[in-house]
Write a structure and sequence with these properties.
4 helices, globular
C-alpha cells in the first residue's frame, strides 16, 4: 500500500476486517459471496453497503449506492465521499480488480469531489477462508468517469 494516504490505508484495513466478518456470516447462512463497498466521508467515518436485489420488480441497488446512501443518511445530504473501496469476489485464476459500473461512477462523482479516490480490489474464496485484496488499483473518480453528465438546465 505504498501510494495510499493514511485515510486510504485505514479504509483498506477497516474493509478487510469487516468483509471477513460479513462473509463468515454469509457462509454460515449458506449465502454466496457478494460485492461490498466501503465509503469514507470527509469527516473520516466509514460506511458499508452491499447490493440489494428486489426480484419482484427486477431492480437492484448497487453496493456503492448503499454505502453512499448510508453515509448521507447519517451525515446529511451535503456529506461528501473522500474515498471509496469496492471489493468483489473473483476466481483464483482471475485477479481482476472490481471496478464500479457506469451508474455507480456517476453516483460517486455526484457525491464526491474532484479529489475523491476509488480503490478497486477483489477477494478470492478458499476452502478455509478468503484471500483478501491480492491486487488493488487506485483511481481519482475523474479518471474512471472522465466526461461527467452535467445538467445544464439546473444552472
Amino acid at each position: 500500500m505504498g501510494s495510499f494516504t493514511k485515510d486510504e490505508k485505514r479504509l483498506v484495513e477497516y474493509a478487510r476486517a469487516d468483509l471477513e466478518a460479513r462473509l463468515k456470516k454469509r457462509r454460515a447462512a449458506g449465502l454466496l459471496d457478494t460485492l461490498v463497498s466501503y465509503a469514507m466521508s470527509e469527516s473520516g467515518k466509514i460506511y458499508s453497503g452491499s447490493p440489494t436485489n428486489f426480484l419482484q420488480v427486477s431492480s437492484c441497488v448497487h453496493a456503492e449506492m448503499m454505502a453512499i446512501g448510508n453515509m448521507r443518511n447519517y451525515e446529511g445530504d451535503f456529506a461528501r465521499v473522500k474515498c471509496i473501496l469496492i471489493a468483489g469476489p473473483v476466481p483464483k485464476d482471475d485477479l481482476e480488480c472490481t471496478k464500479p459500473c457506469g451508474i455507480c461512477r456517476l453516483f460517486i462523482y455526484e457525491n464526491g469531489t474532484a479529489k475523491t479516490t476509488v480503490i478497486c480490489t477483489c477477494y478470492v474464496r478458499k476452502k478455509s477462508g478468503w484471500d483478501f485484496f491480492p491486487r488493488m488499483e487506485k483511481y481519482l473518480i475523474g479518471r474512471l468517469y472522465p466526461y461527467p453528465y452535467r445538467d445544464v438546465w439546473r444552472h
